[in-house]
Amino acid sequence: MAAGAAQAAAAAVEEVGSVGQFEELLRLKAKSLLVVHFWAPWAPQCAQMNEVMAELAKEHPEVSFVKLEAEGVPEVSEKYEISSVPTFLFFKNSQKIDRLDGAHAPELTKKVQRHASSGSFPPSANEHPKEDLNLRLKKLIHAAPCMLFMKGTPQEPRCGFSKQMVEILHKHNIQFSSFDIFSDEEVRQGLKTYSNWPTYPQLYVSGELIGGLDIIKELEASEELDKICPKAPKLEERLKVLTNKASVMLFMKGNKQEAKCGFSKQILEILNSTGVEYETFDILEDEEVRQGLKAYSNWPTYPQLYVKGELVGGLDIVKELKENGELLPILRGEN
Known about the structure:
Distance between the termini: 62 Å
GO molecular function: iron-sulfur cluster binding; metal ion binding
Protein name: Glutaredoxin-3
Subcellular location: Cytoplasm, Cytosol; Cytoplasm, Myofibril, Sarcomere, Z line
GO biological process, one term: intracellular iron ion homeostasis
Shape: flat
Radius of gyration: 23 Å
Keywords: Cytoplasm, Iron, Iron-sulfur, Metal-binding, Repeat
Structural class: alpha/beta
């Protein structure tokens, strides 16, 4: 019985292997909720989330659940800016309506329930999630000394007001982190009520709302903006400090405990086999470092390995050095 139930659940989760298949599925499932899991076979957290999806598929037969190997169908992954696994996208009427990054089973369950019922929760069931949302919003606005909630990212703003806000902050060399409100509909709607501010972008300093674009323009004109917002160290100085943070520094997708791409996973295995101590930096956590280090090192891809602040190279070079017996002396600083 148990084996039969497991097979039925597995069958309820479809697998997509091409762009054509994905687009066809978007069209066919337009009238229902479609949940797509961007996964990778090398990531154990993805296997766990596949099991969660199988259970959700049993509970919600009206919802379509799909697995898509992120590195196997790169065109789809790039289109939806999938930079780590697991990532879940939610579609209705062939349009993306929500997103969840990471292996968060309770959050995935909550989002499936909410979107499957089109938000028609009874008031009693909604009480606790609202408290949870307020707590989450508080954490988000305190996530960095200066937080910008915008449409898109600083690299790719998706509205004119967000673009102008980013340009002003960059012009004044203000250090800020950002949150793309298009990536989370719950945050997008909830923050308007939480802050009593109906539009985006919104800028926060030390958890306090400063305002939207018009306020920031006024503060810039009155020369108060520089006094309110924290200044960023020059990127080149920051990168120099980071590459020298430890004798052996690895810039990768993920961290020592959890690699978020196959190349990063392979280089971790090689470094771990040497027994040499090293530190890592997750480039997915800092877009400025991710883009800036490519120019700083004149090396376009990740992972990147540094010894005493000097670039050794990426995965292919590290593999060659290991095969030639040169890796250990380099890591020890003997070469």
